[in-house]
From TrEMBL:
Pfam families: Cpn60_TCP1 (PF00118). SUPFAM superfamilies: GroEL equatorial domain-like. Keywords: ATP-binding, Chaperone, Nucleotide-binding. This is T-complex protein 1 subunit delta. The keyword Protease does not apply. Belongs to the TCP-1 chaperonin family. GO terms for molecular function: ATP binding; ATP-dependent protein folding chaperone. InterPro entries: Chaperone_TCP-1 (IPR017998), Cpn60/GroEL/TCP-1 (IPR002423), GROEL-like_equatorial_sf (IPR027413), TCP-1-like_intermed_sf (IPR027410).
């Protein structure tokens, strides 16, 4: 199938994107992709900050939170450690989606971060781990912050419900 893209410059602030495809499934997938791209652009407009991608921030945060949890005791230590464990869900998912062995890839990634290589992440294009900033694999900071905020609020809501159920 042939594809054509047209761009016109106009002084207005409204843009129309026409999506055509061979079937409804192709069109819906194109619409989802365009929506995702527009959301990324919106995030960059709201907060002009990029961070390393490829699971690098998540594994680094997990490592730091684990270290911090060792300075705490009791329930606080347990909660911080659980949050660190939750951060480690993203890198194995990326590795698996890239066709890599998640266990060995994440172990290697952890070792690199423990040695101070903070920008090492999963490189889907090369099928391994590398310095993700050198490869220009970045993501908007706001995407990660929003995901963490939403996840944390969700957990807090669930914990509140659990408290209500236990009181009855």
């Amino acid at each position: 199938p042939s594809h054509s893209y047209q761009c016109c410059t106009s002084p207005g602030k409204t843009v129309t994107i026409v999506v055509r495809g061979s079937n409804k499934l192709v069109i819906e997938e194109a619409e989802r992709s365009i929506h995702d791209a527009l959301c990324v652009i919106r995030c960059l407009v709201k907060k002009r900050a990029l961070i390393a991608g490829g699971g690098a921030p998540e594994i680094e945060l997990a490592l730091r939170l684990t270290e911090y949890s060792r300075t705490l005791s009791g329930m606080e230590s347990y909660c911080v450690r659980a949050f660190a464990d939750a951060m480690e869900v993203i890198p194995p998912t990326l590795a698996e989606n890239a066709g890599l062995n998640p266990i060995s890839t994440v172990s290697e990634l952890r070792n690199c971060h423990a040695q101070g290589e903070k920008t090492t992440g999963i490189n889907v294009r090369k099928g391994g781990i590398s310095n993700i900033l050198e490869e220009m694999v970045v993501q908007p900071l706001l995407v990660s912050v929003s995901a963490l905020t939403l996840a944390t609020k969700t957990v807090r809501s669930i914990l509140k419900i659990d408290d209500v159920v236990n009181t009855r």
